[in-house]
Write a structure and sequence with these properties.
It is built from 14 helices and five strands. With 352 residues, it is mainly alpha-helical. The chain binds tryptophanyl-5'AMP (TYM).
Length: 352
């Protein structure tokens, strides 16, 4: 055997990514970035700004650069330690694209045809969607598996993509099982089955204008979301305008059923304060929404303003951000490259 093979059983590793598209909002923070920071103790973490995913939809290049730095700044402002862990942008590590191509040849059209995010993003004009938008989930599988990551903190909207990642890992292991065993990995499983970590207090933050729609970067109405860079006035205004219903808040969580806007605001309050929804309802239940909203404004400003201010400070020094990304990319490459050597060897590619 001429190929150098480094097959080893995988160690626990956390990986996640955020797209540098539009403004980061409270959903990104509570569903993902806040949890990234919490997972740092006791785990090896890799957090990626997925600029290659961003270009599956048209992007202004100048804006893409700005947004890539802004997401990096959000990671740092949320407390992620880029020295202990790895923070980088996807396009600097070629293994993502290379493994995505391999996975394009593993995943089946039928699997990708079932992805609801593609259907939503492509809309009615499917013929005009990019191939990249269709193949988006195979790149996502590559992001995770090029590090043989075992745990992936994400919001609920990414669940289906994680299931596909597991299917791809399983099919690769199965299709090449003999080869993997012949190369010395006894179990025959080269890629792990990464586990989604979706169980945070707010895995699905909803729009402030419509409690049945998720809070999203792409919503035309800026009032539908709290952006991480919103100042105190904007936060106050958006929460005061947030849609509610005419009933007062219930005293117990049961009473939130069928009241999506009320439920969303209570969930946000709970997640930001680190308290249980039941405790919050015991305090605010029976009272007017305006009292609750005033408390939510105060809490949101207290929790989000320092992050926004720190993001502004950090993005004021783009050279520092770029240096963090470069250093992270070097360390990410050092993990990804041996995996790619294995994969090339497993596939039968000749390499120098
Ligand atoms: P993206 O950039 O859309 O969102 C980043 C993270 O924020 C979560 N999120 C939410 N959580 C709760 N409530 C919401 N309203 C809300 N909106 C967004 C998302 O679930 C996500 O965790 N495909 C991914 C990026 C990605 C990735 C990866 C993630 C690329 N490769 C590999 C994990 C592993 C995405 O578009 O996220």
């Amino acid at each position: 055997m001429t190929q150098s093979v480094t097959l080893k059983p995988y160690q626990p590793r956390v990986f996640s990514g955020v797209q540098p598209t539009g403004n980061l909002h409270l959903g990104n923070y509570l569903g993902a970035i806040k949890r990234f920071a919490e997972l740092q103790d006791g785990h090896d973490c890799i957090y990626c700004v997925v600029d290659m995913h961003a270009i599956t939809m048209p992007q202004d290049p100048v804006e893409l650069t700005r947004a890539t730095r802004e997401v990096t700044a959000a990671f740092l402002a949320a407390g992620i330690d880029a020295k202990k862990h790895i923070v980088f942008n996807q396009s600097q590590v070629a293994g993502h694209a290379e493994l995505a191509w391999v996975f394009n040849c593993i995943a089946r059209m039928g699997w990708l045809n079932r992805m609801t995010q593609f259907k939503e993003k492509a809309g009615k004009d499917r013929e005009n969607a990019s191939i990249g938008l269709f193949a988006y989930p195979t790149l996502m599988a590559a992001d995770i598996l090029v590090y043989r990551a075992t745990h992936v903190p994400v919001g609920e909207d990414q669940k289906q993509h994680l299931e596909l990642t597991r299917d791809i890992a399983q099919k690769f292991n199965f299709d090449f099982g003999d080869r993997i065993r012949a190369l010395g990995l006894e179990s025959g499983d080269y890629f792990p089955q990464p586990e989604p970590l979706i169980a945070g207090p707010a895995p699905r933050v909803m729009s402030l204008r419509d409690g049945t729609k998720k809070m999203s970067k792409s919503d035309a109405s800026d009032n539908s979301r709290l952006n991480l860079t919103d100042d105190a006035d904007a936060i106050a205004q958006k929460i005061r305008k947030a849609k509610t219903d005419p009933e007062p808040l219930p005293g117990e969580a049961e009473g939130l059923k069928g009241r999506p806007e009320a439920e969303n605001l209570v969930t946000i309050f709970a997640a930001l304060s680190g308290r249980e929804p039941a405790t919050i309802l015991s305090e605010f239940g029976g009272g007017q929404f305006s009292t609750f909203k005033n408390a939510l404004v105060e809490l949101s400003v207290e929790k989000l303003s320092p992050i926004g201010a720190e993001m502004r400070r950090l993005t004021g020094d783009p050279a520092m951000i770029d240096a963090v990304l470069k250093d992270g990319a070097e360390r990410a490459r050092a993990i990804a490259e041996p995996v790619m050597r294995d994969v090339r060897g497993i596939l039968g590619f000749i390499q120098g």
